[in-house]
Amino acid sequence: AQSVTQLGSHVSVSEGALVLLRCNYSSSVPPYLFWYVQYPNQGLQLLLKYTTGATLVKGINGFEAEFKKSETSFHLTKPSAHMSDAAEYFCAVTSSSNTGKLIFGQGTTLQVKP
Amino acid sequence: KAGVTQTPRYLIKTRGQQVTLSCSPISGHRSVSWYQQTPGQGLQFLFEYFSETQRNKGNFPGRFSGRQFSNSRSEMNVSTLELGDSALYLCASSVLAGVGSYEQYFGPGTRLTVT
User: Fold this and answer.
1) Considering only CB atoms, which chain A residues are within 8 Å of B56?
2) Residue A88: closest CA among chain B residues belongs to which residue?
3) What's the maximum distance between 2 C-alpha atoms anywhere in chain A?
4) Contact A16, A31 (CB under 8 A)
5) Are B45 and A103 inside 8 Å of each other by CB?
6) What residues of B are in contact with residue A60 (Cβ under 8 Å)?
7) Nearest-CA neighbor of A26 among A84, A100, A83, A105?
8) Which residue from B4, B101, B105 is facing A51, i.e. has the nearest CB?
9) Rounded alpha-carbon distances, angstroms, from residue B74 to A38, A46, A106, B13, B34
10) Residue B90 gets which letter from DSSP?
11) pLDDT digit string (tens) for B23-73?
12) With b meaning 16 or more CB within 10 Å and e meaning fewer, what string describes A53-65?
């Protein structure tokens, strides 16, 4: 079975500050990991993914995440927050044998203060 | 390339009725997955279709069903609607983007309100 835990349902940062959104996963098989962003009244937009290869992955809008197997983590970071980053962020896990089924964390709402 | 499209975008139904939602995947994507999003339960997997066959199913009652057509378009149906079925229903299409690479893209969703 697979599961995802996102630590902190709400995170607040100042504009220009570091963004760190935490995601820990549980998986009995090698995981595929994803971060999605959702703006109000919209669907989910893929930010970045880890499937195989390089453990530090870069995504859109300046976000990146590092897959750490020993810590079962896939935290999302951005060096400098922008007001437009305010949204809800979801971490998700699947595997190569189950790719059509994403298991999501509960989400983290990012607030960016001016 | 056009993204995932879902119709209708908004829907209001009465308890006991049934509803059908439609999803058109990105061209070339053969897998379509459906998810339910609610404030209380978050994002939950409903089912996945690949080449017109249900390949995976989540833990939802039999009132929730789906199908996929030969052109990969998919529909989901909810019968005997309950107030708790009010949610945003998201469709996603996916593709193996290369060896060990996989991507799933979401549509804008259908907001279903049951009164």
Assistant:
1) 98, 100-101
2) B42
3) 44
4) no
5) yes
6) none
7) A105
8) B101
9) 23, 21, 26, 21, 9
10) E
11) 999 998 999 999 999 998 999 999 999 999 999 999 999 999 999 999 999
12) eeeebebeeebbb
